[in-house]
Amino acid sequence: MSSTPMRDIPRVGFVSLGCPKALVDSEHILTRLRAEGYHVAPDYHSADLVVVNTCGFIDAAVEESLDAIGEALAENGRVIVTGCLGAKGDTVLAHHPQVLAVTGPHAAAEVMEHIHDHLPPPADPYTSLIPPQGLKLTPRHYAYLKISEGCNHRCTFCIIPGLRGDLVSRPAGEVLGEAEHLVAAGVRELNVISQDTSAYGLDLKYRTSFWNGRPVKTRITELARALGGLGAWVRLLYVYPYPHVDELIPLMAEGHILPYLDMPLQHASPRILRLMKRPAHAENALARIRAWRETCPGLTLRSTFIAGFPGETEEDFRQLLEFLEAAELDRVGCFTYSPVEGAAANALPDPVPEEVKAERRDRLMELQAGISARRLARRLGQRIEVLVDAVTEDGAVARSAADAPEIDGVVLVEDGHGLEPGARVEVTVTDTGEYDLWARLDPGAA
Ligand code: SF4
User: Fold this and answer.
1) What is the DSSP-derived secondary structure letter of residue 281?
2) Which of 58, 188, 326, 331 has its Cα between 20 and 30 A from that of 367?
């Protein structure tokens, strides 16, 4: 077999910023690069060109992205920009006019065209070097599975629909094919992501697609059921509480998918939710949560909230705290309102001063720390299954069904030194904190 000498192989450096959706875009580009015979350079200096996949969600992310582009230009000089900030090409070019090209998010084909223009592929691609699951940026044992792109809502604080467009779902057969490859390659946990997981398939009118000769509707319930049959943990992220989400809870209760729902509610005051143009109403959310917990008592609920949205009064904020007390969510994140450039909410009257925003966020997180600790304390003495992420000298760092990677807590298995990353084992919970659990494989030996 003839081969291209190593020194002739073009090398592309890659910087990946942003959320799991951006990470999946990076993986697609990296997979195509390797498929065409490019090498991925480990540093700026050995790269012939650098791709920076940016985030543009909040001002801090814009700054981080602009800094990353500046660093790549200073260290390497030949830079292609893609991702959410790339959708605002003018901003990128105003700061860094010397970049070679700029594309928006979810544009692997366009990025590849620019790479071809500036760094042609080698004549003899090493196609056999690509692992069957493509190139992953996550550890081998878990992966993000993107089921759709874009969003049909127009929440006033969000610019994602402007950046990524309306909902475009991937046919269920295509998603299941990718999931099957991932599981065959050793992935033990599939984290299903999108901007709005409940809306999956709406744009395709829930069309039936085919997977291994079987019809599967492009709809979240049918997709979740099929994914659950692959043998890996299946976790659903970014789920809005639409009525048909009720159908998912029995799948969780029966063990097909993990009893975990990440549901970004953002607020609980009806007035603020209207100003935000959110798809769901807090009272409905509370009634739903209660019904879900009756069907599936082990359900873990995660949500995120915004403190200090324009016009938020102390009364609105009090309603949010009351909702949290009543809902007893397991995991909560809270951000202060950030006036992202281009968001409709910036034009609303009565902005909340920064110090009030920060003070409200801190109050919310303090209240929630007590709720989380109480919810976790119920797990003391329980026997639970965990997935090992890493092994350190203190034991194994693992996660249970209640812990999504990177955003939730962990389970520290104190006698887990002999375990391997990716192992799924049963442990007994021996201690609980505000966010994390401590456990042992063999509690009798403690
Ligand atoms: S649901 Fe709202 S916050 Fe989420 S991506 Fe769509 S517009 Fe943005």
Assistant:
1) -
2) 58
